[in-house]
Amino acid sequence: MTSENVPGYMPGNMPESVPENMPASHDQAPSRRRLLGAGLVLGPMAVVPMGFAGPSSAASRAAGASGAPATAKAAPGKTPIPPVEPSLTVHAIDTYRGETEAGLRFDLSYFENGGYRLLERFETLAGGRTKDPLLNRDELKAGRYEITLHLAEYFSRIGARLPQPSFLEEVPIRFKVADAAQHYHVAILFSPWNYSYYRGS
Amino acid sequence: MAGISTHVLDIANGKPGAGMRIEFSILENGAYRVVKTVRTNEEGRTDEPILKPEDAKAGRYELLFHVDEYYAGLRGHLPDPPFIDQVPVRFTVFDATQHFHIPMICTPWNCTTYRGS
Question: Who among A172, A174, A194 is closest to B115 (CB)?
Fold first, then answer.
């Protein structure tokens, strides 16, 4: 990739030493850290993604303009990551289509008295997230949860040609919340033949 | 070769998931009935197939991987708090003449399964 086709960057004044994997401006959390690092290294030649208005962009320009040694500015210039409200959120990504259609149904249950008790049923928006957190600060409590994805219904609806009955139908995703003061993001990747999930952020 | 097999890989430690408890169940009359409980060997596989070719039949099955118990039993690798609980993998054998290999790739923070071969 050359400087002329790096998305989100102004052409013409891109130094040759800019790493090829510079973040796009919408990738906020990593971009703040990496952008700051780039600014310190590149000094006055540093460029800022168009449309980026985060607090660290001014800091990185100031650091570059001053010409001071990078090490002197690095510590105070680091942007603290804002605390995340405790909640439970989900992002389910259809890796078969490459994008999740709206209307993937899933159920959230909580383990108590020896079994999983249904708390609420949800549907994803287009893209695979939900409009609101599954559980907000007041609702999230420590314990064991299960999310059941209705995959057979979903893939049937979007017209995937699969054996019937299909390999995956209703997929249980179980996880533990140990500290209800933290944010828990459950990221799920799925296709008709595999799935993966992890604690995201 | 028909039947069902598995293979557990502990990618947090870069080695087979040895000694993990797995319960194998079949869906009957709307409920999963435990057929047998097995433990993975040193290779992360089971000494015998989960379901032998001669026993293969179409149906809905569950492999319940005790991933949380596995990591709790490993000295020096007990994350606090843990995230992955027991992991039930529910799948359909839609053609009893085909083989269904169900790998489990896990860490205390994520897991992956797929139809392998």
Answer: A194
